């Protein structure tokens, strides 16, 4: 989807990114809790976890809360809260095929990815490749153009980020269900 978020929200995020320093970003890891590890053959991006107390994210979190409520109202997913991170892909960075829901965990239910690259060109790379099940050919290729957002079920769609040839930013939110809910 293009231009789903209001322009002032997108501009605030873009301004916030430019105010961050490289020290705000850490090498991205795979795995969960004590099993987390940085494996550069799988993933080479850097991340900055976001929260509502950061000035430049407040309007985004307010907007994404409205999205959560609408999804619950119309699709009955039972989304409870969210976690969000900013990912930076330098030239040479990528993220191999993966699912956003950890094996044996069902708490991440919905993923949204918002692209924040105003001057993106096809030669920059860093596209999102989305797959269905075990298929080897992507059914969707998403260009990381400024203001584009993709939303999908976290545990159903394997995806990857192709090799980036230019600086690339994305804001990923995972909408979660309450782990304590019966049947989940």
From TrEMBL:
Gene3D superfamilies: q2cbj1_9rhob like domain (2.60.120.620). Its cofactor is L-ascorbate. It holds the Pfam family 2OG-FeII_Oxy_3. Residues 63-177 form the Fe2OG dioxygenase domain. GO terms for molecular function: ferrous iron binding; L-ascorbic acid binding; peptidyl-proline dioxygenase activity. Keywords: Dioxygenase, Iron, Metal-binding, Oxidoreductase, Vitamin C. The keyword Metal-binding applies. One of its GO terms (biological process) is cellular response to hypoxia. PANTHER family: EGL NINE HOMOLOG-RELATED, HIF PROLYL HYDROXYLASE, ISOFORM C. This is Proline hydroxylase.
């Amino acid at each position: 989807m293009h231009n789903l978020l209001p322009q002032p929200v997108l501009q605030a995020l873009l301004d916030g990114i430019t105010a961050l320093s490289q020290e705000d970003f850490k090498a991205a890891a795979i795995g969960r809790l004590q099993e987390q590890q940085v494996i550069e053959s799988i993933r080479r991006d850097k991340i900055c976890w976001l929260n509502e107390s950061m000035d430049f994210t407040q309007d985004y979190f307010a907007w994404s809360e409205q999205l959560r409520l609408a999804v619950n109202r119309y699709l009955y997913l039972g989304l409870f809260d969210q976690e969000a991170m900013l990912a930076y892909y330098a030239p040479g960075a990528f993220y191999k095929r993966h699912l956003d829901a950890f094996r044996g965990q069902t708490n991440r239910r919905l993923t949204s990815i918002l692209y924040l690259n105003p001057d993106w060109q096809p030669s920059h790379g860093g596209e999102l490749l989305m797959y269905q099940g075990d298929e080897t050919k992507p059914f969707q290729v998403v260009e990381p153009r400024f203001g584009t957002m993709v939303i999908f079920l976290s545990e159903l769609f394997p995806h990857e980020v192709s090799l980036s040839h230019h600086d690339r930013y994305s804001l990923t939110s995972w909408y979660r269900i309450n782990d304590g809910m019966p049947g989940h």
